[in-house]
Amino acid sequence: MDIVYIKGLKTDAVIGVYDWERGIRQTLVLDLELASDNRAAAATDAIEDAVDYDAISGRILAFVSDSEFELIETLAERVADIVLGEFGIPWLRLTLAKPGAVAAAEDVGVIIERGEKP
Ligand SMILES: Nc1nc2c(c(=O)[nH]1)N=C([C@H](O)[C@@H](O)CO)CN2
């Protein structure tokens, strides 16, 4: 199994459980590891045969920046659903960080793995 990855994908959204969080936008940072078989793309040298990290990044940014969930768990799950369902990715590991949420921590977040490893 090969990996195509996206690291440090940053945007902001309305996210949080507290009242004061519902009226502001906060930074979110995503890292993704996407299962792939890179040999097909390498053989043809064609983007159609590759896991297109640019297309996936754009879709995620559009979704996250429009979202208004309370929990980062919910947002992470929805992003995983989109990537698995719309891009034919069989397995992923997704890290969603909310830097600044805990003042004394560098960042906090969740890590999920979804799908089946090929
Ligand atoms: N496991 C989680 N814990 C907390 C979350 C969350 O989304 N998942 N959110 C908050 C608050 O919104 C926090 O980010 C405010 O600083 C607290 N704990």
Number of helices: 3
CATH architecture: 2-Layer Sandwich
Strand content: 25-35%
Shape, principal axes of CA atoms: elongated
Low-confidence stretches: none
CATH superfamily: GTP cyclohydrolase I, C-terminal domain/NADPH-dependent 7-cyano-7-deazaguanine reductase, N-terminal domain
Q: What ligand molecules are bound, each kind once?
A: the ligand Nc1nc2c(c(=O)[nH]1)N=C([C@H](O)[C@@H](O)CO)CN2
User: What structural category arises from helix and sheet content?
Assistant: alpha+beta
| N-to-C order of helices and strands | EEHHHEE
Computed CA radius of gyration, to the nearest angstrom: 15 Å
Instruction: Please tell me the overall pLDDT.
Output: 97
Q: Provide the CATH topology.
A: GTP Cyclohydrolase I, domain 2
Enzyme class: lyase
Catalytic activity: 7,8-dihydroneopterin = 7,8-dihydromonapterin; 7,8-dihydroneopterin = 6-hydroxymethyl-7,8-dihydropterin + glycolaldehyde
Protein name: 7,8-dihydroneopterin aldolase
Family: Belongs to the DHNA family.
Task: Explain what the structure shows.
The chain has 118 residues and is α+β, with helices and mostly antiparallel strands. The protein has a single domain (2-115), classed as GTP cyclohydrolase I, C-terminal domain/NADPH-dependent 7-cyano-7-deazaguanine reductase, N-terminal domain (GTP Cyclohydrolase I, domain 2), CATH 3.30.1130. Helices cover 31% and strands 31% of the residues. It has helices spanning 38-44, 53-66, 72-87, and strands at residues 2-13, 26-36, 91-97, 109-115. A four-stranded antiparallel beta sheet has the order 1-2-3-4, covered by helices on one side. The longest helix has 16 residues, at 72-87. The protein is elongated, with a radius of gyration of 15 Å. The model has no long low-confidence stretch (mean pLDDT 97). Bound molecules: the ligand Nc1nc2c(c(=O)[nH]1)N=C([C@H](O)[C@@H](O)CO)CN2.
